[in-house]
Design goal:
Distance between the termini: 5 Å
CATH architecture of one domain: Orthogonal Bundle
Radius of gyration: 24 Å
Shape: flat
Strand content: under 5%
Structural class: mainly alpha
Helix content: over 70%
CATH topology of one domain: MetI-like fold
Order of helices and strands: HHHHHHHHHHHHH
Number of helices: 13
Length: 321
């Protein structure tokens, strides 16, 4: 069984690496299709042809597209992310603190949303068609229909402006400062991301739990005289969590892109502001790296979800034998 699971993991890793390679091709092709010339964006329209040519040569923009792509890709594999066109410093030095701040924000949101979603969904299934189930389903449906910037704006109005002035409307973190140095400024961004994820996962968890509770093996466990708590935690929960893992992965991967909007809304010094600035200045190395990071998060979360689903679901583990 261990050999079959290892084979499954290796296949998923290989598929993930192939996906990232294809995505890297698409990212490079799209950024090369930008209408503005990066050299002209840096030097301005008044720059002489000689100055533009010299700058293109410095950044390797005068080389064939294939050579530029291979240099970029192998540079990333070596840990050399290139040089930012806008700041003239290495991309790793410029973007590193921002990426770590964004990942910290996502980690806190994930740690809060995942157990909360599972608990809400499981309890709604156990109290099917009762008041808690009806209320939680209605609230989750309303919250799921609202995009992040709407949720963030509503939270700002409630907790930072006209109703209660309890929390700051924006964060006051400096780039490179530890995110936890402004705890009060983190509350609204984290709460916005948590609300963006929880409704979807809780609804899927509820549906999966209801299906499992009506299955034959759960009924058989009850007929054997097992107490309800044992039936729920040993037989129902492991098989219901599996489908929820897939939705959790999709939503966390979605947050890797959605965090950009939340960061801009709350002035959080993460990848959101860096990506917006890079697009405005046609800073191709920064745009390419951030796009690849977001794609990598998608691939990694789905890989972990596939592996986690197999490990926690007895039926799927049996099929791998």
């Amino acid at each position: 069984m261990k050999a079959s699971i290892l084979k499954f993991v290796i296949k998923r890793i290989a598929l993930g690496l192939l996906t990232l390679f294809i995505v890297s091709l698409l990212i490079f092709a799209v950024t090369q299709a930008f209408p503005a010339d990066p050299a002209e964006a840096m030097l301005g329209r008044e720059a002489t042809p000689e100055a533009l040519a010299a700058l293109r040569a410095d950044f390797g923009l005068d080389k064939p597209i294939v050579v530029q792509y291979t240099n970029w890709l192998f540079g990333i594999l070596r840990g050399d992310l290139g040089t930012s066109y806008a700041t003239s410093i290495s991309v790793s030095e410029y973007i590193g603190p921002r990426v770590s701040a964004s990942f910290f924000l996502l980690l806190i949101a994930a740690v809060g949303s995942i157990p909360l979603s599972i608990v809400i969904g499981a309890n709604a299934a156990l109290r099917r068609d009762r008041k808690f189930d009806t209320a939680s389903s209605l609230v989750s449906l309303i919250l799921a229909a609202m995009p992040e910037f709407v949720v963030g704006t509503i939270l700002t109005i409630i907790f930072s402006t006209t109703i209660w002035q309890l929390l700051p409307a924006v964060t006051y973190l400096e780039v490179g400062a530890p995110p936890w140095s402004d705890i009060s400024g983190l509350i609204l961004p984290v709460l916005t991301l948590l609300i963006a994820v929880t409704p979807y996962v809780s609804r899927v968890m509820r549906a999966a739990m209801i299906e499992v509770l009506e299955s034959d093996y759960v009924e058989m466990a009850r007929l054997k005289g097992m107490d309800e708590r044992t039936v729920l935690w040993r037989h129902a929960m492991p098989n219901a969590v599996g489908p929820a893992f897939q939705v959790i992965a999709l939503n966390l991967a979605y947050l890797a892109g959605g965090v950009i909007i939340v960061e801009r809304l709350f002035n959080f010094p993460g990848i959101g502001s860096a990506l917006a600035d890079a697009v405005r200045s046609r800073d191709l190395p920064v745009i390419q790296f951030l796009a690849l990071i977001i794609a990598g998060v998608y691939v990694l979360t789905n890989l972990l979800a596939d592996i986690g689903t197999v490990l926690v679901t007895p039926r799927l583990r049996t099929r791998l034998k």
